[in-house]
Specification:
heterodimer, A: about 230 residues, mainly beta, nine-stranded mixed sheet, 1 helix, about 5% helix, B: about 325 residues, globular
Chain lengths: ~230, ~325
């Protein structure tokens, strides 16, 4: 039942995805639909205030110096092993009149509300590691994702608060492909060249009183060239 | 001829059938399809129960009553089963068959029907797969995992719970109208299933099995051993429709089923009017709705090479058609 609920959340709350594209040493933060369906826009313009951080990291997750290029879309120039962005589209509340981008205390007759928080991490260089970098929601690949070829399978592990996240639905390039096992693992397959976007969502209680819960989503991003 | 007919009729109701497993959630909607007659490589999720029902309704070809005064008319082989997933890689089943066999006698002027529960059977299914190496089926698989090669080894035994000495028309000795074999039978089998990565709507299944009979001494003092049987089945199922919101899916199914029957033995002597080879075709469909699965199809002989073929009526290979229906529900 919980898995079904989380799948529904992924479908409804995560209507958009967050990802990072690369052009040499330039990393571009994009928001929208990585696999747009008919009638959907590939990218949706966001405001700079929605980006809580956009950082260049080494393989251990330490910050590296990089040039942040302001404007839309937000860009980062640097030699980064990883690039990570934290983004929030704010508070969302369901009402009888529809979904509103406001906290529940600012709408009439709130039905359900949440605060959306999204973390996108792009891997550009691989260093094997068995533990998450943070105590937050995270997905790490078991083997190097950068040497993968189209058709090959790979395994990722989802962590939450430092422990494997079990029974969590996992999203890969536009579709739910299953849920994590007891060790937080799930096997995926590269189906096409280009950007691979692997996502997982958890729901936390909101302590601010402005929403019923916080929806946290983590996106692991890497690119397959062959 | 008569003995062959009887043996085959009874066999049809005993065939193990652990296919058509209703699946859960996204796996059910997007995972591999299941054939109608062949066994797929699906095992039951750990801790899950499956209720299973199958009807194999046979309409026999009939010939001139002057040549065959006694002819088989119709047979309905029901199978009721319950399965349980002890481990992701180990499922156990119990099957209870119920047979209804109708024959026309005395030039078609009279009819005789034998019906009742036949031999109960038990079966164990061991599931494994190839995913960067051979391994037992894990507890959880993603949709991509479901597209790996999956295999099962299965084995079963029937218990002589049916009445093997049940009399036929006007009290005659008629093992073919009886409800059991009098002795256990053994089955071993292997299945392989592959959902295609680049065409996930399509699933291929291979199912091969061997069924071993043992000689039974009837109340009349006659000893009889039914011929062992080898099956090699292949199937393709193609998902033509799915609706995630309504948890609905529909597959089209086609199968080729090869059956080799050894000759029966009566009092230690092989019977020349028994045994043979048959190739069946199956066309059908399967609908999945939430945790239930309903399958239906028609099975018909495409080719046969039966011993003393022209003298037979009511033997496997001599069907007009077989109507197959299955229903399974998992919880």
């Amino acid at each position: 039942m919980l898995v079904l609920l989380l799948i529904l959340l992924l479908y409804t709350a995560q209507a958009h995805e967050l990802w990072i594209e690369r052009d040499g040493n330039l990393f571009v933060l994009l928001y929208g639909h990585i696999k747009p369906e008919r009638g959907e826009e590939a990218t949706v313009k966001y405001s700079p205030e929605q980006v809580l951080s956009f950082e260049c990291l080494d393989a251990e997750g330490n910050r590296l110096k990089a040039e942040l290029i302001k404007g839309y879309p937000l860009k980062l120039r640097g030699s980064c092993h990883m690039v990570q962005a934290v983004f929030s589209s704010g508070y969302w509340t369901k009402t009888p009149e529809g979904l509103k981008n406001l906290p529940k205390d600012q709408v009439k007759d709130p039905i359900e509300s949440w605060y959306s928080l999204e973390i996108a991490r792009r891997i550009n260089a691989w260093k094997p590691r068995r533990e998450p970098l943070s105590n937050e929601l995270e997905i790490i690949p078991v083997e190097s994702p950068l040497s993968l070829r189209v058709g090959e399978k790979f395994t990722v592990i989802a962590y939450y608060r430092g422990k494997p996240l079990r029974d969590a639905p996992v999203y890969h390039n536009g579709r739910i492909v299953g849920s994590t096992d007891e060790e937080g693992r799930i096997n995926l397959r590269v189906r096409e060249k280009g950007i691979q976007l692997v996502g997982v969502t958890v729901r936390e209680k909101d302590s601010s009183g402005k929403a019923d819960y916080v929806l946290k989503t983590f996106y692991l991003i890497f690119e397959v060239e062959r | 001829m008569r003995r062959l007919t009887l043996a085959l009729l009874t066999l049809s109701g005993l065939t193990f059938a652990h296919h058509g497993v209703a699946s859960l959630g996204a796996v059910g909607l997007e995972g591999p399809g299941a054939p109608l007659e062949s066994s797929s490589s699906a095992t039951l999720p750990e801790g899950s129960w499956l209720f299973y029902t199958k009807l194999d309704s046979v309409k026999w070809k009939k010939y001139s009553f002057s040549e065959f005064p006694d002819q088989k008319d119709r047979s309905d082989f029901w199978m009721f089963g319950v399965g349980y997933g002890f481990k992701p890689w180990l499922s156990l089943y119990i099957f209870v068959p119920y047979n209804v066999k109708k024959e026309l006698r005395d030039g078609g002027e009279k009819s005789f029907t034998s019906k009742g529960f036949a031999d109960v059977s038990l079966m164990a299914v061991l599931g494994f797969k190839y995913d960067r190496g051979l391994k037992l089926l894990p507890k959880k698989e993603s949709l991509e995992d479901m597209m790996d090669w999956h295999f099962t080894l299965y084995g079963g035994i029937s218990l002589p719970t049916g009445n093997a000495n049940k009399k036929g028309y006007q009290g005659e000795f008629a093992p073919d109208m009886a409800l059991g074999f009098g002795k256990p039978t053994l089955t071993v089998g292997f299945t392989a299933t592959k959902q295609f990565v680049n065409l996930p709507e399509l699933t291929f299944t291979l199912d091969t099995s061997y069924l071993k009979f043992f000689e039974h001494k009837y109340n009349t003092g006659d000893k009889y051993k039914f011929g062992d049987e080898v099956r090699v089945n292949t199937a393709l199922s193609y998902r033509v429709f799915k609706d995630v919101q309504r948890s609905l899916r529909f597959d089209l199914i086609t199968e080729l089923n090869y059956l080799h029957l050894q000759k029966d033995k009566e009092n230690g002597t092989k019977l020349d009017d028994s045994g043979g080879d048959i190739l069946y075709g199956v066309l059908g469909g399967r609908m999945y709705y939430k945790r239930a699965s309903l399958g239906a199809g028609v099975k018909f002989p495409l080719w046969k090479d039966l011993n003393q073929q022209s003298q037979q009526q009511g033997a496997e290979g001599k069907e007009k058609y077989r109507l197959i229906m299955t229903f399974s529900f998992m919880f």
